[in-house]
Amino acid sequence: MGYIEKIQSMLQNGEISCIELTEKYLKAIEEANGELNAYVTVTPEVALEQAKQVDEKIKRGEKLLPLEGVPMTLKDNISTNGIETTCCSKILKGYKPIYDAKVWEILKKNNAILLGKTNMDEFAMGSSCETSCFGGATNPFNTDHVAGGSSGGVASAVGGDIAAFGLGSDTGGSIRQPASFCGIVGLKPTYGAVSRYGLVAYASSLDQIGPITKTVEDASLVYDVISEYDENDSTCEGRQGEPTYDTLNNDIKGMKIGIAREYLEGVREDVKEAVLEAAKKYEEMGAEIVYFDLPALKFALPVYYILACAEASSNLGRYDGIRYGYKTEHYEGIHDMICKTRSEGFGEEVKRRILLGTYVLSAGYYDAYYKKAQNLRGTIIKAFDDAFKNVDVILAPTVPMTAFKSGEATSDPVETYLTDICTVPINIAGLPSVSVPCGFNKKGMPIGMQIIGDKFKEGKILNVAYKYEQACPENFKDTKWGVKLWNMN
Predict the structure, then answer these.
(1) Can you give the pTM of this predicted structure?
(2) 150 counts as catalytic
């Protein structure tokens, strides 16, 4: 039984009231957040009001909806009506949206309990959570290390048991990388499976909202709820096929699990060993491991940073100090005001990516960089299409290393771009991928692997992940923080 089902069972059976449960989580946030820095906004009034409604429903003898009564969190780039949504940037401090993101609208209808908004790299640009104007979230396994990025706050909160689950966004690995660093599960759905309406855009052709959870079962439950068709998002198709939860325990005997040799290049030895050990475990379950070549992977990182920065340059043009958000105090004329507002309001990493994006879109460089990157994107998509003609899923490391120490990313930001090398191909191709824990290094820091599927095959990759989770429960460990469901007294 996953955490979500356990919580709902306890609520339904009267072992604890939803208000009591919510208060325990709020108290745990108060005690742990000083060190974890996972939350940037806590919403006790909202959470307790929702909990009250759940308790009243239970008293009436009504069955709980999926996710009802479960304390959770949202990354701070998911719009929440009347609740500050800053993207952890100075330029949006004090901004309160006037509408809800589609995913939050769905969760509200299901009476999920919003504990607050969580930390992130500024405008989701970073791999450590340290570009946040609030300072970075830390790793619940060792607070001297980063939680990962850009959804570091969600991963820190879920890994530290100060939220039962959370929603993050993944543009180039921003759900899977922090999930790997924090020893939990992160699902990046197929592009278009979950609505992006109300997600503050970084790179619109790459962004995707998905769940970060303690278990694969929980990820499946959350995905099934949030993957609704949305007419407000022209790219949204919703979940295709039956709920993934119904197929979690399917037999994987005879399934072909592919390992692209290129995915193992440049990966630290302890990470490679853990992934290959997982492959052996799958062989013991009756799956066939198929090694193959995927040379197009070498293009993925440069293609990603050209396209992502180009789209960021366009998307972030709206932050000018005129309509909302931060505005410089001293200026002479409109052009000076916009220039100073953006210079003062954006952090260094965001400015770096805006400048890169503007450069590759400029006259004389568009064909040399942006157009070439788009063509290579097509090559990468075709390479994955061809691969899935021969294998059912692909197994790969999530990140080439384990969580690095705080401060290492900011000392050499370009070096940290390499942490995305295993994750960005999936966003370029619009594929689903789930990261699950597959071991620990000698210092006790988690190692993650990702299971990649063809488009809208979330059910297949979650089933493969679930089988591993059941076979290797020792890789799914709790930390010292937060609420422990087995000891609620």
Answers:
(1) 0.97
(2) yes
